[in-house]
Structures are given as structure tokens and as C-alpha cells.
Write a structure and sequence with these properties.
- This protein is an alpha/beta fold and 482 residues long.
- The chain contains 15 helices and 23 strands.
- Strand 13, helix 8 and strand 14 form a beta-alpha-beta unit.
- It is globular.
């Protein structure tokens, strides 16, 4: 076990302070969201009586909550709030006009946002390690939490997904450290600051930065402003971890930074001698990203061999390793942990396999993530057929903000099965009209019928890409395959 700066008694004293300040009975609006569901688990672990409401309930979060004994109400009606509720936590998916929101305001029931509740009740007196960026937050946070756990540091964590190395997406932990997925999305309808502003981390990783969340931000500059506010909260004794030569992140740092910075890269130039070349980098052994070496100061530290694919996951690994090293975990120990990292549910998760079909579930919502994910799969499977079943579900996708790049991001696929939910602000046909790979469907049964029209004669890889339940298409295809 790695020795921390503070002794055991100090950690125990710190842990005992993690108790709810006032509210012992809380009700969470939007409880099945990845963040709010994880927060519910933490509140339950603190000893709070927890219940919640949501209009969109589906696994794996609903299963976690039910297993924890947390009562979930379907929909939002005023009779769900009992008289003994001390405080209501309102998720950012809720807005004015919602019956329960209006009831809370009219009855003057104490309320707060999820990030603020978390900050006041759990993150005080913890060494917070925050993972931020447009892509890869859930996977990198899971990696970091696992590295610290493997090193014996007993961290707390909150992850916006279900990591396979843990039983749940959130734990209080008994150690000094708390690892959190730091989302730039707004906190609540009454607090339009990004969630991560509340966390006040000592260690911050910014994995990447692109325009997203068009329903919240007008442009990239608006997102960069929130990241600048985040950078302002990092102490001078902390650390910020960045990829090398990311223009949009560099522009954030140029606005002002008072914290030491460490950078990383993958497959750097052979010279490795320019002043701005990161001293920490990875060299790919396999193009798929299944195997790569870690270097620091041009000396090989170790080798990661795991089941994950894609250049993006190699970058995620470097980010997690450096954040863990800042918390006291030597790189070799971190590399050892990554070799045992199992991934995250709904991140290229294999959910079914037959002799001729391998079925994946991927939480895809942005062209860059889609492109790198499919590139990793293509490098792994070679010439075998890849079929993508995609639902344009994120708010930014539905608004048409990715129309210029979404089709190109899918070109590693041999066939693309588009689901048209009927509520898009644009026409799928206009984006796909010149693409022979694309097929558009109005219903899930039609997609499934087309998939099974011809039995594969050789191995095929079917990738379901959606950040929602997708009308239970995952289970429906699994049932047909079985």
C-alpha cells in the first residue's frame, strides 16, 4: 500500500466529516441520469433516506438504484414528495413548468443542485481529482478510480457510467482522495454555471476540448470561458494535466493559469528534443491500441496490454496515469492497474456474440468520439464487416450542429443503419443522400428486420451507437441472435 502524506487517524477524522449538513431525507428530480443516479448512491451511503423521480428510466442506472433500495417514481407528480422530505435536489434536465419543480418553488421546500449538494456534503476536506473534457471523461475517471483503488488508496468516486472494475458507479471511499467526472454541462435551471465549478479540484485533467452541448452553449468560446473559470479554482500546489498541442485547450490556458502543468502525447516525433515535447508519452505497439508502451523522459516505464481499443483510450490512459502519479501512485503501479482495467458499460461493450456476429453497445454522441471508436475497431478486426446502428439522440445532434461531420465520422463502417426518431431539426436524407452505405429507418423493428435479412457468412461486428435506451433495441437484437 502506498503511504499518504496524512496518517491514518487524519484520514479517519476527515472521513467522519462526510455527513449531511442538515438534510437527512432527500428527493432527487431526474434521479436516473448518470450523474444524479451516482449522487443518489453516495447520499444513501451517507445515511440519507433517498427517493427520486424520473420520466426516462432504463438500465444500468435504474438497476443500480433499485439494488441500493432507493425508491424511484415514474414521472413527476406532487404526491411523490412526502412531508418528511428535508431537501430536493433538482437535476439539470428539469426546468420551469415541470409539476414537481413548480410545487417545490410554491411550497418553499428547500432545494439545491446536484453539484452544490455534492460539494457541501462530500467533497469538503477531500483531495479532488477531476476529469474533464469533451470526450472520454467516463472512461478516464473509471481508469483513475481503479488505479487509486488498485494502489490501496481507497478513493471515493463518482462516475457517469458503470465501470466494470467496480460494483457501482459511485462510492464514498475511506481514503483522502475523491475522483469525479467533471462535466461542463450546466448545474440546474437556477444555476447556469458548469457543474465542475463546484468541485474545486486539486488535480485536474482536461482530456480534449471541442464544441458540444449546443442546447446550453452558443459557441466554443462560451465553453472555453467555463473551463477558464475551472482553471482559476485549481490551487498553485495542484496540477493540471493536458494533451500536447490541443489548440482550444491552449487558448483556455492563455487566459490565465496559476498551477503547474504536465502534458502528454502519443507516438511523438522521433527527435523528442523540442522544448515543448512532453516528457510523458505512449508508443503504440498495436495499431488498435490494445498494446502500448509508456515513456517518461525518454525512458520506458512499462507496457499496457488490455482489452480496450482506439487511440482515444491510449490518451485516456496517459491522462489517468499522470493524475494518479500526482496523487502518489508511481507510474509502474498505475500501468499494472491498467492491464487489469475492464472498461465501462456502454463503451464499446460486447453484449452478445455468436459464431458470425459480435454485438457492441456504445454511448456515442459526438462525431470525434464516433470516428476514433470505429477507427480502433477497424484496426482490431481488419477486413471483417462493421455495421453501425445509430440513433442521433443528443441535443446537439438533434439540432443538426454535427451535420457537416457526422457522416464522415462513420466511414470506417461498411453499412450504416440510421434511426430517424421523427423529432430532428434536420432531414437525415439530406445528409446521407449520396452515401451508398446509409439506410434510414423510422422504426426499430424495421432496422432489426434489415439486419437479419441475410445471415452473415463470415464474422460481422454490429455496433449500436446511442446515448439513450434506443427503444430497447439492444435487448431485441440480443434476443434474435440467441
Amino acid at each position: 500500500m502506498i503511504q499518504l502524506e496524512s496518517d491514518r487517524s487524519a484520514k479517519q477524522e476527515q472521513t467522519t466529516k462526510m455527513t449531511p449538513s442538515k438534510a437527512n431525507s432527500i428527493h432527487i428530480l431526474g434521479i436516473c441520469g448518470t450523474f444524479m443516479g451516482s449522487l443518489a448512491l453516495l447520499a444513501k451511503a451517507l445515511g440519507c433516506k433517498v427517493s427520486g423521480s424520473d420520466a426516462n428510466v432504463y438500465p444500468p442506472m435504474s438497476t443500480q438504484l433499485e439494488n441500493a433500495g432507493i425508491e424511484i417514481y415514474d414521472g413527476y407528480t406532487t404526491d411523490q414528495l412526502s412531508s418528511d422530505i428535508d431537501e430536493v435536489i433538482i437535476g439539470n434536465a428539469l426546468s420551469r413548468g415541470n409539476p414537481l419543480v413548480e410545487h417545490v418553488l410554491n411550497q418553499r421546500i428547500p432545494y439545491t443542485s446536484g453539484p452544490e449538494w455534492l460539494s457541501k456534503n462530500i467533497l469538503q476536506n477531500r483531495w479532488v481529482l477531476a476529469i474533464s473534457g469533451t470526450h472520454g471523461k467516463t472512461t478516464t475517471t473509471s481508469m483513475l478510480a481503479w488505479i487509486l483503488t488498485h494502489a490501496g488508496l481507497q478513493p471515493g468516486f463518482l462516475i457517469g457510467g458503470v465501470p466494470k472494475n467496480f460494483e457501482r458507479s459511485a462510492e464514498l471511499g475511506s481514503g483522502e482522495h475523491f475522483v469525479i467526472e467533471a462535466d461542463e454541462y450546466d448545474s440546474a435551471f437556477f444555476d447556469k454555471r458548469s457543474k465542475f465549478i463546484h468541485y474545486k479540484p486539486k488535480t485536474l485533467s482536461i482530456n480534449n476540448l471541442e464544441f458540444d452541448h449546443a442546447d446550453i452553449f452558443d459557441d466554443l468560446a462560451a465553453i472555453q470561458k467555463q473551463f477558464h473559470h475551472l482553471v482559476r479554482t485549481i490551487p498553485s500546489e495542484g496540477q493540471i494535466i493536458l494533451p500536447n498541442q490541443d489548440l482550444y485547450i491552449e487558448q483556455v490556458i492563455e487566459k490565465g493559469c496559476w498551477t503547474p502543468i504536465r502534458k502528454f502525447s502519443v507516438n511523438p516525433a522521433a527527435s523528442n528534443s523540442t522544448p515543448d515535447t512532453p516528457t510523458n508519452y505512449a508508443k503504440l505497439i498495436e495499431p488498435s491500441g490494445n498494446k502500448f508502451e509508456i515513456y517518461t523522459d525518454q525512458e520506458k516505464v512499462g507496457q499496457v496490454e488490455w482489452q480496450l481499443t482506439g487511440l482515444h483510450n491510449v490518451c485516456n490512459a496517459l491522462s489517468a496515469l499522470l493524475a494518479a502519479e500526482h496523487a502518489g501512485v508511481p507510474l509502474p503501479k498505475g500501468i499494472e492497474a491498467l492491464c487489469k482495467f475492464q472498461g465501462v458499460t456502454r463503451r464499446m461493450e460486447i453484449i452478445a456474440r455468436t459464431d458470425t456476429v459480435c454485438l457492441y453497445d456504445d454511448f456515442a454522441h459526438h462525431p470525434t468520439a464516433i470516428e476514433t471508436t470505429l477507427a480502433g475497431l477497424r484496426n482490431q478486426v481488419g477486413e471483417e464487416t462493421i455495421k453501425v446502428i445509430i440513433e442521433p439522440r443528443s441535443n446537439t445532434m438533434q439540432m443538426g450542429m454535427h451535420n457537416d461531420t457526422i457522416l464522415a465520422s462513420l466511414q470506417k463502417a461498411d453499412e450504416i443503419f440510421w434511426y430517424d426518431p421523427g423529432n430532428l431539426a434536420w432531414e437525415l436524407k439530406s445528409v446521407t443522400k449520396n452515401d451508398p452505405k446509409s439506410h434510414i429507418f423510422d422504426t426499430v423493428p424495421d432496422i432489426i428486420s434489415k439486419l437479419f435479412q441475410v445471415e452473415p457468412s463470415s464474422m460481422e461486428h454490429w455496433v449500436i451507437m446511442s446515448n439513450g435506451g434506443f427503444n430497447n433495441i439492444h435487448q431485441k437484437i440480443k434476443s434474435r441472435l440467441s
